[in-house]
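Researcher: Quick test of sequence recovery. Tokens follow.
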């Protein structure tokens, strides 16, 4: 039953977080809370030891501490900080650096792409879309939740949790 969480719930919540950030520049708190709740359900049938679960929680707490510091300095949004921590809960300490590296590379690429797009006028076809106008605005930040979600989807299949639950 844990495979439902890994193969359906986790990807759905990641996709929802990314699309919400793209369209509204917000990641609702319920997404991060749902990720934590779904992790609790999946880990119950995962076969992970209490020590391993503790390392997952520790990784999430470390990530939350670092990302909230970044939020306090205005580097990332609060939703990004919470999403990164909730995702790291699933990833665990063993793959945390992989996740953060992939998220950083994807986020950097997304930032460069947005800067390039924002250097040109918005095509007339897209001007009628409020999210496109907002995203094109040079005063708008970067929807980093897209990179965080994509990185989570890329790294979670490499985790011990994945191996235990899915068997591959």
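Model:
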């Amino acid at each position: 039953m844990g495979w439902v969480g890994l193969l359906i719930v986790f990807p759905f919540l990641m996709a929802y977080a990314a699309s919400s950030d793209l369209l509204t520049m917000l990641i609702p708190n319920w997404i991060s809370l749902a990720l934590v709740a779904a992790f609790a359900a999946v880990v119950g049938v995962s076969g992970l030891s209490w020590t391993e679960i503790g390392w997952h929680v520790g990784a999430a707490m470390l990530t939350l501490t670092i990302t909230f510091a970044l939020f306090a300095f205005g580097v990332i949004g609060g939703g990004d900080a919470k999403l990164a921590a909730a995702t790291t809960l699933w990833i665990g300490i063993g793959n945390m650096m992989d996740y953060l590296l992939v998220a950083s590379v994807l986020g950097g690429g997304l930032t460069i792409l947005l800067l390039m797009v924002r250097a040109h006028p918005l095509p007339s076809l897209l001007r009628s879309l409020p999210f496109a106008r907002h995203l094109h605005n040079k005063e708008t930040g970067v929807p980093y939740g897209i990179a965080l979600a994509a990185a989570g989807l890329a790294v979670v299949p490499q985790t011990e949790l994945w191996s235990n639950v899915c068997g591959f």
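The radius of gyration is 17 Å.
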